[in-house]
Amino acid sequence: MRPLPGLEGADLESVPSPSLLVWPGRVQANIDRMIELCGGPDRLRPHVKTHKMDAVVRLQLEAGIDKFKASTIAEVEMCLAAGVEDVLLAYPVVGPNQDRLLQLALAHSHARLSFLVDSVDVLRGMNAHCLAAGAELGAFVDFDCGMARTGTCSVDDAVVLVEAISAANGIRFDGVHAYDGHVREPEVAARRGTWGGAMESVQALLDALAAAGHSVPAVVGGGSPTFGFHAGERGWQCSPGTVLFWDHGYGAAYPDLPFENAAAVLTRIVSKPGTNRLCLDLGHKSIASEGPLEKRVYLQGLEAGRVVGHSEEHLVVEVEEPERHEVGDVLLGIPHHICPTVALYHEARLVRDGMVTEESWEVTARNRRLTV
Length: 372
Fold this sequence. Notes:
By secondary structure, the chain is an alpha/beta fold. It has two domains: 85-239, Alanine racemase (TIM Barrel, Alpha-Beta Barrel), CATH 3.20.20; 259-366, Beta Barrel (Lyase, Ornithine Decarboxylase, Chain A, domain 1), CATH 2.40.37. 31% of the residues lie in helices and 23% in strands. It is built from ten helices and 16 strands. It has helices at 24-38, 54-62, 73-82, 97-107, 120-133, 155-167, 188-211, 227-233, 248-253, 338-342, and strands at 19-22, 68-70, 86-92, 112-117, 137-142, 171-178, 219-221, 237-238, 263-271, 277-280, 297-300, 306-310, 315-318, 330-335, 347-352, 355-362. The strands form two sheets. Strands 1, 9, 10, 11, 12, 13, 14, 15 and 16 form a nine-stranded mixed β-sheet that branches. It has a seven-stranded parallel β-sheet with strand order 2-3-4-5-6-7-8. A hairpin with a 2-residue loop joins strand 15 (347-352) and strand 16. Helix 4 (97-107) crosses helix 5.
């Protein structure tokens, strides 16, 4: 069996497939690069939705990063349990999740918890819950700078929201949140141009708030594709997430960003159907599958192969030289999209010095509920 890149000399006989593998040394290197790009840890508010791991949060805390961003209540709770004292739930909070967030605020009264708001009605409801519980939460106005997913794209409506927050007794105004996830051009100049237009709309809001007499404590902006722009050209808080593990999708699209793949999926050939096909144990339940077939996974050693089928537990690849591969052969796949791939596993086996160790990191917040 040919050695696998990153696993040279590793004994893989006892490693089941599919398995999620993580290289802690590469994760640390990616953290260091994040901090270097920002000129220090103070401006960073990294997103935990990619890794969902207590261990990765703790590595970042040790590096001096003290603010984090989450998408679920479970991710917020994971951060708090790790010792984080400033967590933004970057998601609209409605229904029972309002009480769940308040339970965490009461249990961690020393911590600074905040959430996104783009509706006066939701804000008022949350404020009533805060007053009844005797707790205080922070609110970031969610401003839509082009993603068209959540938030308001109206400067006037955003100013009204800030005024409503300022008038609330149980909620404080923590700032503005602007996610530019629609900015994805591979070519740097084109990406910078689209990003610049999006940031002009955010600046228009900041100018309107200043004219209305509202100071903005913080602006949280950007994801991974625009992280370099935010880090180098604005003084706002930066919230990259994918950069912790990176993936083939971002690596191929954004070679200008200095991050390396720190996670992969180990898979095996389980069958050789027909005359030119290999079947791997890498189905929908093992790797993110929201994209087209050619954008599911980059298989090292099968770069010339073509994915022709994907189902719950099987991935079928057409190859030109099937005789070069045997049933039971191990392959390493770099997910096209690492974030939902990680959430398919309860733990990641750790790779150190080219060997798969007995160590593992739990995917702590893959479940929707931890204790609340």
